[in-house]
């Protein structure tokens, strides 16, 4: 999931840096999260055959985008022997400070959007376990819980949470697959499967949603910088992509085969396994408990990068206005608390993990995985004195235009559903 592995999930990083296999592990676990919970639902919406095709297209597009991004990060015209360490630095090197700030903004919107989705998911689980209050009230409660969690500043503490997040993500993946198999064995296939759809807007919107779980490009700068041999990042990415296709594909296909079109009545497959009404099965209890751990650990890790940016902003204000240490501490905590409240308000506005994933897939994931790598690569090739050829330029321009079209359509579809 997004940036949780950007520096914290290393799957056994050594002092000498990441090997290819450890880098592949980091890439894989950095994106396993809430995105996989909506995959069966999207397959139900657009049909299992169409959904599988879109799933493969998303995997290929993000893989190619990751390869292009890794090349771009190695093309710093000022220091050719070093890897560009972040999206902000990439934008700064390629286009200047304003674009660097925009690249950073896209990443932080993505991170905080995922945090909002985690609050919505946590509220849904709370409603499933207790059967009291409402979804929105539970979001408010989890905002109150999230505020003190946002005050965790020490990176060693965040790192411990990230390690727990890796374990819980693996557990979540296994439990969802087990629940699907159990449903198929105990109740049999539900039948009435939809294989395709003739609605083009649904297909376009679904593509952006499928891109979201493959947004490993977010962690590319840090993982690549941490490798023993950054030049071997493409090998690690290839291994990770195969693993993700197998894992995500299993969840998507088994989930749809087990629960069928009934998924369309729920926000995620977790809501079908553990509904908010009626008696919970044992697998539902286990799933809910694991999701609580996943959300709690992932939330702090994903919140941390933006919180640190706010800390830097506050420090500039404190230095400029000569604020007392006590007031400085208060401003830091207030800024972090305000960030959590903003995330909660976004969650209340969407009130759907599925809609948030579709929106973030369109607004941020497509840019991070496809558009930003392409425009950066073209620009850096030019700065290094070897501009791309006419055919490459035409193909890249076409891909960027199509990607922007997908962004607009998916955002429009999400806005209509709010």
Automatic annotation (TrEMBL):
The subcellular location is: Membrane
Superkingdom field: Eukaryota
What would be an example GO MF term here?
A: L-amino acid transmembrane transporter activity
Supply the alphabetized keyword list: Membrane, Transmembrane, Transmembrane helix
Give TM regions: 20-42, 48-69, 99-121, 133-152, 159-181, 201-223, 235-259, 282-302, 330-351, 357-378, 390-415
Alphabetical GO CC annotations of the entry are: vacuolar membrane
Record keyword Transmembrane helix present: yes
Gene3D superfamilies attached here? Amino acid/polyamine transporter I
Task: Give the Amino acid transporter transmembrane domain ranges.
Answer: 18-413
Report membrane topology.
Multi-pass membrane protein
Note the InterPro entries from the entry.
Answer: AA_transpt_TM (IPR013057)
Its recorded name reads Amino acid transporter transmembrane domain-containing protein
């Amino acid at each position: 999931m997004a940036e949780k592995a950007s520096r914290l999930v290393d799957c056994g990083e050594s002092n000498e840096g990441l090997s290819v296999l450890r880098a592949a592990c980091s890439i894989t676990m950095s994106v396993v999260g809430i995105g996989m919970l909506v995959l069966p639902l999207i397959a139900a919406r657009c049909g299992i055959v169409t959904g599988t095709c879109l799933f493969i297209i998303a995997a290929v597009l993000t893989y190619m985008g990751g390869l292009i991004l890794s090349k771009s990060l190695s093309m710093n015209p000022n220091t050719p022997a070093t890897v560009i360490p972040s999206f902000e630095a990439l934008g700064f090197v390629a286009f200047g400070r304003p674009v660097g700030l925009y690249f950073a903004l896209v990443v932080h919107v993505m991170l905080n959007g995922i945090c909002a989705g985690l609050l919505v998911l946590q509220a849904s689980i709370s409603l499933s376990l207790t059967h009291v209050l409402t979804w929105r009230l539970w979001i408010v409660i989890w905002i109150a819980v999230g505020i003190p969690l946002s005050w965790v500043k020490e990176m060693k503490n965040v790192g411990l949470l990230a390690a727990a997040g890796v374990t819980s993500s693996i557990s979540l993946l296994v439990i969802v697959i087990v629940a699907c198999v159990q449903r198929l064995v105990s109740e049999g296939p539900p039948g009435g499967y939809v294989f395709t759809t003739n609605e083009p807007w649904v297909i376009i919107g679904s593509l952006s949603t499928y891109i979201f779980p493959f947004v490993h490009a977010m962690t590319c700068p840090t993982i690549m910088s941490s490798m023993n041999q950054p030049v071997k990042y493409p090998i690690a990415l290839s291994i990770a992509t195969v693993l993700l296709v197998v894992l995500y594909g299993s969840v998507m296909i088994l989930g749809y085969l087990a629960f069928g079109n009934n998924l369309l009545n729920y926000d995620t497959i977790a809501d079908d396994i553990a509904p908010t009404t009626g008696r919970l099965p044992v697998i539902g209890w286990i799933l809910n408990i694991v999701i609580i751990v996943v959300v709690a650990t992932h939330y702090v890790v994903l919140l941390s990068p933006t919180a640190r940016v706010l800390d830097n902003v506050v420090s500039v204000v404190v230095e400029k206005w000569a604020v007392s240490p006590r007031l400085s501490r208060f401003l830091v905590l207030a800024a972090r608390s305000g960030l959590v409240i903003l995330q909660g308000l976004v969650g209340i506005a969407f009130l759907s993990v599925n809609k948030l994933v579709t929106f973030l897939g369109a607004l941020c994931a497509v840019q991070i995985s496809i558009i930003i790598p392409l425009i950066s690569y073209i620009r850096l090739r030019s700065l290094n004195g070897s501009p791309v050829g006419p055919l490459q330029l035409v193909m890249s321009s076409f891909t960027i235009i199509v990607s922007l079209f997908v962004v607009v359509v998916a955002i429009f579809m999400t806005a209509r559903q709010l």
